[in-house]
Amino acid sequence: xxxxxxxxxxxxxxxxxxxxxxxxxxxxxxxxxxxxxxxxxxxxxxxxxxxxxxxxxxxxxxxxxxxxxxxxxxxxxxxxxxxxxxxxxxxxxxxxxxxxxxxxxxxxxxxxxxxxxxxxxxxxxxxxxxxxxxxxxxxxxxxxxxxxxx
Length: 150
Description:
Shape: elongated
Mean pLDDT: 89
Low-confidence stretches: none
Helix content: 40-55%
Number of domains: 1
């Protein structure tokens, strides 16, 4: 009987110790990199949608998207340029800064009632992730350049 109690005590102690180690590692190792990658995935996947609601405007937007029926929507681009960056960050549920610009195949920012860009351009970032998404605007292929940075 004594050996059984010792075995159960040992198993219980090892379980608590293992949980403590796992919690410590998940909150310290790679935490910063994960957050910026998570934020990039979130903003890039939400921007390449219609947004919510589908026909959002600056008064009813839950989270903005740039597309309508799979192509860039000029009205949505103009509206997102007017949104406050803090609102965009909170609507996507991200923590880091972002910058988006839409270019032609040659890398020149297209003009949609001014330069097709929004967010805060990175200046001396400690970390940055960049990615590109392809779309179409007025029948011409365009590149949506997305940066998330600290």
